[in-house]
């Protein structure tokens, strides 16, 4: 016995399938947004470079991945490039600044830091830094880095508004560790250059 098509039933079925498809798309979009927000908040996020203060390591418009999780388990190390929120001293100098900063950690808690003779000295030992734009042409310190704080400098030493102007970065202001450049394509790579202690003369 041949079946007579039930147009009403077929129409309802099509509407149900369409509604189901729309629900799945909406669920996927919502889940993607939740995951993206969660990852950005707790794990990693992308940042871009707006200034020349970290030249030549980082150029204007370089895009970076910032690891926001590892410092929950380990302490920042000398040479790490970190993203941090403006400190109280930065806000006093310029209350309108709200954007995060990016610099390189040079002084760890308890370190004695001094800039003299166009070199950086940590605990009276000169650093060998092959990543800077030019040798610093200023004098700074000596200063002792307070507990739970860090001294940061830009790799473009003579064109960077950093710790030698406004002081130290408290540990709780550090957002994360810049670990990878992913744009532009010809500059993709890890950011893992570290300062070394120079050989004594």
Protein architecture, described:
- The chain has two domains: 36 residues; 153 residues, Ribbon (Umud Fragment, subunit A).
- Helix content is 23%, strand content 30%.
- The protein is α+β, with helices and mostly antiparallel strands and 201 residues long.
- The radius of gyration is 25 Å and the shape is globular.
- The strands form two sheets. Strands 1, 2, 3, 4, 9, 10, 11 and 12 form an eight-stranded antiparallel beta sheet that branches. Strands 8-5-6-7-13 form a five-stranded antiparallel beta sheet, with no helix packed on it.
- β5 and β6 form a beta hairpin.
Task: Lay out the secondary structure.
Layout (H helix, E strand, L loop, with lengths): L6 H36 L1 E5 L14 E5 L13 E4 L3 H6 L7 E7 L4 E5 L2 E4 L2 E4 L11 E5 L4 E5 L9 H4 L2 E2 L3 E10 L5 E2 L5 E2 L4
Averaged pLDDT: 82
Say what the CATH topology of the largest domain is.
Answer: Umud Fragment, subunit A
Shape: globular
**Helical residues, percent:** 10-25%
Per CATH, the class of the largest domain reads Mainly Beta
Integer count of domains: 2
Tally of helical segments? 3
Q: In terms of per-residue confidence, which ranges show pLDDT below 50 for 5 or more consecutive residues?
A: 1-14, 30-42
Q: Please state the structural category.
A: alpha+beta
Largest sheet, described in full?
A: 8 strands, antiparallel
Total strand count, please?
13
Query: So, CATH architecture of the largest domain?
Result: Ribbon
What is the CATH homologous superfamily assignment of the largest domain?
Answer: Umud Fragment, subunit A
Amount of beta strand: 25-35%
Order of helices and strands, N to C?
A: HEEEHEEEEEEHEEEE
| Rg for CA atoms | 25 Å
Gap from first CA to last CA: 103 Å
Q: What's the oligomerization state?
A: single chain
């Amino acid at each position: 016995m041949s079946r007579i098509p039930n147009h009403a039933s077929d129409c309802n079925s099509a509407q149900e399938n369409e509604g189901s498809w729309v629900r799945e798309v909406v669920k996927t979009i919502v889940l993607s947004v939740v995951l993206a927000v969660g990852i950005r908040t707790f794990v990693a996020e992308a940042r871009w470079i707006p200034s020349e203060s970290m030249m030549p390591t980082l150029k204007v418009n370089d895009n970076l991945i910032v690891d926001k999780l590892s410092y929950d388990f380990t302490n920042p190390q000398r040479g790490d490039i970190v993203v941090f929120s403006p400190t109280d001293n930065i806000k006093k100098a310029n209350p309108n600044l709200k954007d995060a900063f990016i610099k390189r950690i040079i002084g760890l808690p308890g370190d004695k830091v001094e800039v003299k003779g166009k070199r950086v000295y940590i605990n009276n030992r000169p650093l060998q830094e092959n990543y800077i734009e030019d040798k610093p042409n200023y004098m700074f310190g000596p200063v002792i880095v307070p507990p739970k704080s860090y001294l940061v400098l830009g790799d473009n030493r003579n064109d960077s508004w950093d710790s030698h102007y406004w002081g130290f970065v408290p540990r709780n202001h550090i957002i994360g560790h810049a670990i990878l450049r992913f744009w532009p394509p010809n500059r993709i790579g890890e950011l893992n250059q570290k300062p070394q202690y120079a050989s004594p003369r």
